[in-house]
Prior knowledge:
There is one protein chain. By secondary structure, this protein is an alpha/beta fold. The chain folds into two domains: 5-65 and 143-329, QueA-like, CATH 3.40.1780; 69-128, Beta Barrel (Thrombin, subunit H). It has six helices and 17 strands. The protein is globular. The mean pLDDT is 95.
Amino acid sequence: MSARLSDYDYVLPRELIAQRPLERREDSRMMVLRRAEQKIEQRQFRELKAFLQSGDLVVLNNTRVLPARRFSDDGGIEFLFLERIGPKRWKCMVIPGRKMRVGATARIDDVCLRVEKVTANGKRIVTFDKDVDVYAGGSMPLPPYVNRASDETDAARYQTVFAREPGAVAAPTAGLHFTSEILRDIPHTFVTLHVGPGTFLPVRSEDIAEHRIHAERFSLSPEAADKINNARRIVAVGTTAMRVLETATRNNKLVSRQIEPKSGETDLFIYPPFTFRVVDALLTNFHLPRSTLLMLVSAFTGREFILRAYEEAVRNRYRFYSYGDCMLIL
Length: 330
């Protein structure tokens, strides 16, 4: 197992980065990785049910993406509103940062906001002159590798069909493939993890053990915990669901899958080697080179096997990242 950042790299032609969703969610391709046999199959997502066994439970993240991207009234400043921290006070990210230093002002919906503080990691604490519903005129915060402005299609498609709990600024993208009809036919439950902007931050340390990821809010209900504890096999949909499940058992002194209802924040960084206690199978999209998410799937699958699968995905022209295809790791 490698702890070197450079060992989690691969070459991806830019044209394979999906810029728009497919017309139908269920039409995504699905690469199936069988870890025990080290075998790879080319399938379709709509075949997912055929890979489930009696007693399996599919666990999905039901966070809802907020339309948190706003522009100043003059169009010169882009804001990503992350969290309301008090009356008329918000934590946000801004572009360009040089125009929004402490004391700088801008207007949104003809209401003035002022930069109160710049945090150590570059975020802004801003105060409005009066309350503003920042989401009312907002748009979906598409990832930085989607090279276009969001539109009405993204309002529906950069959101899972089962999104319920508002709080994310990025979608749990493995869940984007599901339709209500597919979900109705499989045993499932939900957890919540509000995906933050840290999911896109690069790892800068060559020793990945030195990297720290941003904490994200999560919750796991008593109902979900009961279903998980009574399941034969757990199939996590996405890295966010996996992180909730593995977080929920970290305080268990026994090496056990048993979990309890839990809520709070998690900054669990999963990279090789890692002992998985809960998750038996993972449905996930293809992730960026040198990213914490690629390290997570490497810990679950084996680095050499996952990189071989990515090479095969490139050869077979799979669609990558948020609006791309998926893989099922068994």
